[in-house]
Automatic annotation (TrEMBL), chains A, B, C, D:
InterPro entries reported in the protein's UniProt record: DHS-like_NAD/FAD-binding_dom, HACL1-like, THDP-binding, Thiamin_PyroP_enz_cen_dom, TPP_enzyme_TPP-bd
Gene source species: Nicrophorus vespilloides (Boreal carrion beetle)
Domain Thiamine pyrophosphate enzyme central: 29-157
Family to which the UniProt record says this protein belongs: Belongs to the TPP enzyme family.
Membrane-spanning residues: 244-265
Keyword Magnesium: yes
Residue span, Thiamine pyrophosphate enzyme TPP-binding domain: 225-383
Top-rank taxon, per record: Eukaryota
Keyword terms of this UniProt record: Lyase, Magnesium, Membrane, Metal-binding, Thiamine pyrophosphate, Transmembrane, Transmembrane helix
The gene coding this protein: LOC108560626
Protein name: 2-hydroxyacyl-CoA lyase
Enzyme Commission number(s) of this protein: 4.1.2.63
Catalysis: reaction(s): a 2-hydroxy-3-methyl fatty acyl-CoA = a 2-methyl-branched fatty aldehyde + formyl-CoA; 2-hydroxyoctadecanoyl-CoA = heptadecanal + formyl-CoA; an (R)-2-hydroxy-long-chain-fatty acyl-CoA = a long-chain fatty aldehyde + formyl-CoA
N-terminal signal peptide: none
Length: 404, 404, 404, 404
């Protein structure tokens, strides 16, 4: 019978000793140092390899001591805090295009990084690549320096090389000036949208005000299209391994399962830490019934559905015409949007609880406060935004296309 | 772009002509006739192969003219109506055990039919097997007559042999008398439970009263454990291919997808026909979010969740003890059951509709009437039954065990 | 230990009863009859499906009574004897191109039959297809009549329809006259080459004189390129299932293994029947070491290597130039061919036996006579032919190309 | 057409840069040094991982400076010369059983090393493991120190640690004395057999006299059962990557293909180096026809078939009885063995050449001399040994059993 509980301890030969890790070739670290030192427009990209290698201390020290600007991949976020003065996420497109040296710390040149190729990257960019997997080395573009190593020792040794050489990227350089200007101007655009609390709401206003209230150490789970993409830049990570999303292959339906796993981990290891699950309405539909599992296990997950009342990216003109002749099942939007939005928060009533429907920022603030205060089980907010809400205007068409 | 609509007709070479079917060896039909004619306690088992072969007319004529008693496999139900005087489902266990000749019409001796072996079958039973798949012939037990053929021509030719021979199984035989007595006594037991409308309700009372109201030609989709098993005997099929359930391998999570497919078929081909989806509460959890799909496509499916407030077969004593120490997430039952039952019907409120919570037969009758009258989209009934409701007492332990 | 011998008989439940076969729809047989009767230029193609179905008696009767011309696929050969007056193999190309009705008896329209398409077939040809596998019906081209059935009962029923209808294709028809003329003219061409016994020998001379001496009931195994292709038309089969070759996918290396299997079968079931294994020199190289197996098991297989001293189809001009500069390992031919031919027959000396090297027809006749008289184990003839020997001139380039 | 020759150079993006390798954790190297220094009965095992990593210089320096005794796995042979005074192969069983510390340099504890377990290993043995593959670390037995690294830098760093520490294992230690005594006594036993040149010959006599004549830098390819096992200890390797055999999974049939590959490599890169292919008679049968390929490509491979006239390990008593009644095809041995041995060397006559049949040591010496002098193409020696020849007596039954 498979349900019997085994009390005997696992025999020693089946236990797992700590895994020794691979170190880098010291000579290649020196080469990497030289290439870095020669850079006029250097850029560090921190990938989830750095998070998995638990190299956060080394990575933070490296960024701090070198004064290099950095970006993070979706699940590489938080290895170095999004609040670091060296984080130049708002200038991402410019940084990728103009950098002359890119240091990849456990990040890979796949579609998320536009394969490292022109026109998204400088055609002459020199790549310094540190990766645990030899098959990834020189992948997509040839690296100037390719290093096979676990990230933790490699980052530490590169940090030591930086310390020895006295290298510190000039804070007054043209590159830092340009990046900061670009960050500033993009932040202003985002801020304008964030402060636009008119209803129906837009993505930026929602995420901005959610961000203000989230516990600084919470685990953020996310999936969706615009919800995941915009939320990634608006919801901050200060800690490594605190963001779980649809990942390299964009797999939908994983959000609630990830949240359950994270919450069970927290229950046993960090009972005061919270899990926030930010879902697009379409993404939520893949496995929303897991709410019952969450309830039965009494996991205090806050589920936030960002609801633009449309499956697959809101409405566009063609779709709107189809709506008029009532033939399109991927949207539920009739003439008056807010009267007929899908009320996902009602799912809480399956368990005799109440969810939150929020159409305005004050409602959202009040509801999120209540949800965060409730540690007895799941809570849920259905925040209604405009079906025509979208990302901030993109100067680069490929940015959007590359996600398809 | 994958979303473009193609208006050109399919080139002729890619169209599918009608598939010619395989016929049986006429000599084997004669042999089958002889074995049938020699039977003292014959039994016909109609499988889903007969339904897929669309051999209902031939099968009904065969049963009618031969006066043979028959059973049906889960999805073989309805090829001959459950209301046929020859249907001896209530005497299933006795019929399998005592039959001396079994005629398999597209039914296979897998676990659903206890592999055709003793003690569930007579060890000396002679099997007449008609199947399209040669690998299935003589499978599990050796057949006395094995016939490779599509079911439709084989049944027709066997019917003709019966007609030629004048064979008609004696209605006054001991076998018919025993089967009828057993059916009668089992029906009385079921009837007693069906009429027990005390609350919390039991399975039989629910299904009996649902059955009274269902359209005679509706398509029944079902999945679950007890819900599917008991519902199979209580909800009648008069038409072939009108029952879709978890199938040979007992796959859970298929119910709502099956119902959507059936309803889309009906929309285009039989717009007045209704689809009823009967789900255990655990089964519903696998893909309950498909309710949103059903709503968006405005499919008039009636979803009936038979809710015993427990995942995996209600509660037993051990489980009840675990409930008391509040540690068991597979049930939500506290001291007062009805105050905390999972309110699946609330999912209708996601779309501004109301579902039905029913705790008594009158409530169920009223709600089902409303649901059947509503053809604009999905309707949903959450009928609460006792967590300790179970099947009628089984004389044969293996009957239950074999389902695991 | 895997080498223990089990003496107990196999339990009854693991024995295999005779497999009942599928029959055809009688109405489709009538349709086939009508289409056949309407044909002006009918053609039967007998495939290995007919051999596997053991329908030789029915097929012979059908050909005999209907007076239809027929072809056979490589392993369909012998179901009806190659010596039948209705066999029109020498007119194959013309028959395929001009036939208006083609009856496929277990033959499939794959690459061996040029996919049934123009220009190798008449674009308006009507196909009558009898096949056991429904997925093959209407494959490549749509059939006028497609019949799912085992070949044996289907052929028998078609024969009965022919008998009932009195159908007999007119021996004095234009079609028979044209086919016979074509056969005659092609046979003359072949005969001229067969009679050309100048050395180095050509394929046709070798096969013609081998054919004269082979036991009428021998099993012919063959693989190679020209050796298999030309041998197929020159070595006659009078019995079904007496030709084993590289098959539908042209797999090389199977010849000696097939010969071993056939010889072991004969040892136990038909001890006077002989197995002849006709190999191209390249084909023999794949698994020639199996000669040791044959010797150890004392199997009286006659192995005939038809040796054109070149791997992959002899030499052409380009190759010959490469030979001159001594750089081409796929041929061993220096200025004087016969002094350096690979002496495969020497492999017999591994076992203290002598093989036969034959360069002329008298040598070949003497050697083959000795080999056929020796029943103690393998015998081997290495017959040397011209490196430039090839097929008779082809009017249709595709005939050759389609083999690639 | 696949046979066209492409003259354009490969585009740069498809070229392969040098692969950077992983380095070890320096702290683990220190730990390894400490464990080594504490050993009373240390043992190094050099695996093919060291050969693939091209770490021969580092490995030789390490053995030389540390004075540690070592063994090699089959394809790890030659990384350090078999003639090294530190090689203790003749004392293999004792060394494995009694070592208290084992240093694995690219060797894995699979079946070839008896899974590292008692009774073949000391149950308390401490393992120091260096391997490139983290999944192999702690495999089968837990290592005291497990190091993930490419072998070359890890060996170099361990060597440096040895140099720094001044560690040198005491040549006068009990362990070295015991190992040398055991080597000496086993060498005497082997020598006795090697010097027994009575006919029919035994394995040791054959290999001893072959070894005396082989070029010191030749590549040895080998497969078979006793032929491969005994040949492994008798045929010496002085250079890394100069032994190719049936490998970890004991795959038969690879010998001639390996020899062809090695000879083509030598033709292009080391034209004076020779390839010797040592085959058991059974092994040769798998792909002996490749001799034709070798001849056509004019590769000067010396093929030595060590022929005990029996498939699968010669004859035993049971087999001998079966031979008498003439029923056993896996041996060809009649009363007088030498008159009927399989004459594999006759295969040379396929090409107008002569092979060598040798029954005595003088014949073998003369033949091998001739073969080594011939560089125009393949040469072949069929050396006949006694069907009852076997390994030297084994004190450990499992040694033999573990190979099955």
């Amino acid at each position: 019978m498979l349900q019997v509980r085994i009390e005997e301890p696992l025999p020693a030969q089946y236990t797992t000793p700590e895994i020794p890790v691979a170190y880098p070739d010291p000579a290649l670290i020196e080469q990497a140092m030289k290439v870095l030192a020669s850079a006029k427009r250097p850029l560090v990209i921190v990938g989830k390899g750095a998070a998995y290698a638990r190299s956060e201390r080394e990575t933070n020290d490296l960024i701090g001591r070198s004064n290099l600007p950095f970006l993070a991949t979706p699940m590489g976020k938080g290895v170095v805090s999004d609040l670091s003065p060296n984080f130049i996420g708002p200038a991402r497109s410019m940084a990728l295009q103009q950098a002359d040296v890119v240091l990849l710390l456990g990040a890979r040149l796949n579609w998320i990084l536009h394969f490292g190729r022109s026109p998204r990257f400088n055609a002459d960019v020199k790549v310094i690549q540190i990766d645990i997997c030899p098959e990834e080395l020189h992948n997509s573009v040839k690296s100037s320096v390719a290093i096979q190593s676990d990230l933790k020792p490699a980052t530490k040794m590169l940090l030591e090389a930086i310390a020895r050489s006295g290298f510190k990227f000039n804070d007054a350089s043209d590159w830092w000036r340009d990046l900061r200007r670009k960050c500033e101007s993009n932040r202003k655009g985002v801020q304008a949208m964030s402060m636009d609390v008119s209803t129906p709401l837009n993505y930026y206003a929602v995420f901005h005000h959610v961000q203000e209230m989230l516990p600084k150490d919470c685990i953020i789970v996310s999936e969706g299209a615009n919800t995941m993409d915009i939320g990634r830049s608006m919801l901050l990570n200060r800690l490594p391994r605190h963001r779980l999303d649809a990942g390299t292959f964009g797999t939908m339906g994983v959000g609630l399962g990830f949240a359950i796993a994270a919450a069970l981990y927290c229950r046993h290891h960090e009972p005061t830490k919270r899990v926030i699950c930010v879902e697009g309405d379409s993404a939520f539909g893949f496995s929303g019934m897991e709410l019952e599992t969450i309830y039965r296990y009494k996991l205090p997950i806050v589920i936030l559905v960002v609801n633009n009342s449309g499956i697959y990216g809101g409405v566009d003109e063609q779709l709107y015409n189809e709506i008029k002749d009532d033939s399109e099942p991927t949207t539920t939007i009739p003439p008056t949007i807010l009267s007929t939005v899908t009320r996902y928060e009602k799912m809480m009533e399956l368990f005799g609880k109440r969810g939150h429907l929020c159409k305005s920022i004050p409602e959202l603030q009040k509801s999120l406060k209540e949800c965060l205060a409730d540690t007895q089980g799941p809570t849920m907010i259905n925040v209604v935004i405009s079906p025509t809400a979208d990302r901030k205007p993109q100067t680069f068409a490929w940015l959007t296309e590359s996600k398809l």
